[in-house]
Amino acid sequence: MALKILLVDPDEQWLSDAKSYLKTQLYEVSTVTNGKDAQLQLYNDKFFAVFLNYDVQNHSGPQVLKFVRTNYPSQRVIIVLNDNKRHESGEVTEENLQRLGAQELMIRPFELTQLKDVLEGHQSLGDLMSNLPKKEGVSEETEVQMTDENFTSIKIDEFYSANSVLFDIYIKLNANKYLKILHAGDAFSKERIDKYKNEKKVEHLYFHNSDRRKFVQYNNFLAKKLVENQNVPAQNKVGILKNVSEKYLEEAFTVGLKPQVLDQGKEVCENVFQLVENSKDLHKLLKSFNDFDPSAYSHAFLVTLYSTAIIKQYEWQSKATIESAAMACMFHDIGKILLPKEMALKARSELTPEEFEIYKTHPELGVKVVETNRLINNSVKQIILQHHEAFDGSGFPHGKKGSKILTLANIIGLVDEFVHLMVEQKIAPTDALKKILVNKQMVARYNSNIVENFIKVFVDPDKIQTKDTVLPSNSRMVPTKKIV
What we know:
Elements: E1 4-8, H1 12-24, E2 28-32, H2 35-44, E3 49-53, H3 61-71, E4 76-81, H4 85-89, H5 94-100, E5 104-107, H6 113-121, H7 125-130, E6 142-145, E7 151-155, E8 169-174, E9 177-182, H8 190-199, E10 204-208, H9 212-228, H10 234-255, H11 259-278, H12 282-288, H13 296-311, H14 319-330, H15 341-344, H16 353-359, H17 362-370, H18 378-386, H19 407-424, H20 429-437, H21 440-443, H22 448-456
Helix pairs in contact: 2-3, 9-10, 9-11, 10-11, 10-13, 11-14, 13-14, 13-19, 13-22, 14-18, 17-18, 18-19, 19-20
């Protein structure tokens, strides 16, 4: 069933163009040019979303918003501003609009394709499936010319699909040339995928960057099912979580930390928590992990995985603590997007002294990126700021020492160092930890209690007789269980 959309705008030509475009995307669209008619439409019908021009007349945009908040509080409303002047001046802000009941702000000029992106950002997996044009069988393969930068890749062995394909799937023929082998709405054909994998030796599949959010949404759902299944080995669970985390971070770093993007991040963190909570054989995988993907997204996932495993060793750990820490892990290096691009391609050991001084600013830059985002709590922001501080005072950016450093930040700092060693030197996790343990200078950078709990990560939990009953010396957290 097509989702219904209401467009409210005084520009009749724009309404016509937008309606025509959204109909090609299989939405059912109604249009009105004033606020009074918009209220009448909302009274008579139900809409998935409303695009409301702030400057509409005969009941203004704010008046319509108040009407919606009073009578239809669950209605999604996206506000459209005609230019950026009032937003820059502070006259119209996201915070004020959200208080009035709007979910999102769009500022002209923008392409009509962005309407589709915004709508998909608000859809549940069920919405996406119901709005998908389902077909019998599989469509013909078609060649397309499109620049490589428009595509996201996934290893062919790590691609999963619903019974109906959620988005177009391609293989790469050569530079800027692709073959669409499955179309959105097709019945999923494992035979066609296997043909390219086994006969053509294809290693990667591709999809449009614009469909990355759908990929994350479906794989988050699938990861949740796998993590809950006690019969699925930890290796399979970690594999799908790694994929969804990397593509999620790619999306977040590309489109920004929008509310819908952060909602997906919370789902990833929830799945990470369930993984460390319920996977009895996780310690075996953590000892033998050997996927040395050097990408920033893979690095962030590994920091998330090992950090949450350490936190799990503490008596004071909780679901909320682990999920907040996981969010901080995923975004701990987000400040690097503001560093000079040429530095992003270098390993830390390759930086000149001058470049390293610039590199040392990325924790503060990270806070700058997220500081105005109300959906990221202060604990996460403080962890981002402090994740390179050291227990002996040798860290950066502020040289904090001992109890002045958040425990979670010191944990993430240790794991960040550990993952760099493991991936850059392509060594087993236990060997990377040994390199840290035999280096007195490195060990001094971290609370000894954290180092001890890191060692426990690699031990069968059934062989650990007791849990810690005291907080680490630099903790500022309140324990969730009574200390005896």
